[in-house]
């Protein structure tokens, strides 16, 4: 299948390589020149504009940084939105706001274009392995069209419902889970240190007794030994919390845990920990505060 792929950064590139390995043909575009070279080396065609990436494609996938990037790429000069014809398919794999997802749903319905929100759980390392977890939202027919593409880089797909925004809501809820885990784990490990308890001993007991969670285990390992890869930077985690706060505000509610966790992540960024893995950054900042 011919696919247009917009966004060939840390996530888009390994996802694109998995699509090529699955036998798909790619036309690729990225805002920063040179980021698409690994895909072009494997046979992808470089597009000059977002609209050009859509030419002849059965579907277009986007893996862009944020809402602002979507505004530019979809609705700016030579944008994707005007290039998509009735019957086209746009699969958005990015973490975006619920409000933007709703806007795209309305816009594409007016144009007769299928839209699937398909944000992913997992970072570049899992993308390389084809082991991301996808949350898909959209009309049944649209999700069925997107499924073979999503399966190329995922180990599983959760269908959130027939409205694309539901998938974005699930992703943001998952980001809240992860951020709260990082905050709680950081403080628990620092507490153990203050009490003279080995961090590994605390976690072994608690994980066996209460969670048996691979997620907590991964965060503890990153905090104590450092991450091999920056899967989720402190900036990305802070962005996700901002989107959760915005969505909650639109619903007229205030989530105290979100507010406090967002403050902790903002403090970590101000502490000179930019660019670091979120779990490591929050843990290091928490330890600094106790010394």
How would you describe what is shown here?
The protein starts with a strand and ends with a helix. The chain is globular. Helix 9 crosses helix 11 and helix 9 runs parallel beside helix 14. Strand 1, helix 1 and strand 2 form a beta-alpha-beta unit. The chain contains 14 helices and nine strands. A six-stranded parallel β-sheet has the order 3-2-1-4-5-6, with helices on both faces. It has a three-stranded mixed β-sheet with strand order 7-8-9. With 291 residues, the protein is of the alpha/beta class. Helix content is 56%, strand content 14%. It has two domains: 161 residues, NAD(P)-binding Rossmann-like Domain (Rossmann fold); 117 residues, Orthogonal Bundle (N-(1-d-carboxylethyl)-l-norvaline Dehydrogenase, domain 2), CATH 1.10.1040.10.
What is the assigned CATH homologous superfamily of the largest domain? NAD(P)-binding Rossmann-like Domain
Give the SSE string. EHEHEHEHHEHEEHEHEHHHHHH
Give the overall average pLDDT: 96
By CATH, the architecture of the largest domain is named 3-Layer(aba) Sandwich
Q: pLDDT under 50 segments (min length 5)?
A: none
Number of domains: 2
* Count of DSSP H/I helices: 14
Strand % is 5-15%
- Rg computed from alpha carbons, rounded to a whole number of angstroms: 20 Å
Highest CATH level, the class of the largest domain: Alpha Beta
| CATH fold name of the largest domain | Rossmann fold
The profile of the biggest β sheet is: 6 strands, parallel
């Amino acid at each position: 299948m011919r696919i247009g792929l917009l966004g060939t950064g840390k996530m888009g590139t390994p996802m694109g390589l998995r699509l090529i390995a699955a036998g798909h043909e790619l036309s690729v575009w990225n805002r920063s020149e040179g980021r698409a070279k690994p895909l072009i080396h494997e046979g992808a065609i470089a597009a000059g504009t977002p609209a050009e990436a859509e030419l002849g494609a059965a579907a277009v996938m986007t893996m862009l940084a944020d809402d602002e990037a979507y505004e530019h790429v979809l609705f700016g000069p030579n944008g994707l939105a005007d290039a998509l014809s009735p019957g086209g398919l746009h699969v958005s794999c990015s973490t975006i706001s619920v409000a933007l997802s709703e806007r795209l749903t309305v816009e594409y319905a007016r144009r007769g274009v299928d839209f699937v929100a398909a944000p992913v759980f997992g970072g570049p390392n899992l993308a390389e392995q084809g082991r991301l977890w996808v949350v898909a939202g959209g009309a049944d027919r649209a999700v069925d069209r997107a499924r073979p593409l999503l399966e190329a880089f995922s180990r599983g797909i959760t269908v959130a419902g027939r409205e694309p925004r539901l998938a974005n809501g699930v992703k943001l809820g998952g980001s809240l889970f992860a951020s709260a885990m990082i905050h709680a784990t950081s403080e628990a490990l620092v507490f153990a240190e203050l009490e003279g308890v080995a961090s590994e001993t605390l976690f072994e007991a608690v994980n066996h007794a209460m969670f048996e969670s691979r997620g907590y285990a991964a965060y503890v390992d990153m905090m104590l030994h450092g991450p091999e890869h920056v899967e989720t930077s402190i900036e990305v985690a802070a962005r996700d919390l901002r989107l959760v706060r915005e969505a909650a505000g639109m619903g007229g509610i205030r989530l105290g845990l979100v507010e406090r966790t967002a403050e902790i992540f903002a403090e970590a960024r101000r502490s000179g920990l930019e660019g670091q893995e979120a779990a490591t950054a929050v843990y290091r900042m928490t330890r600094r505060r106790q010394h």
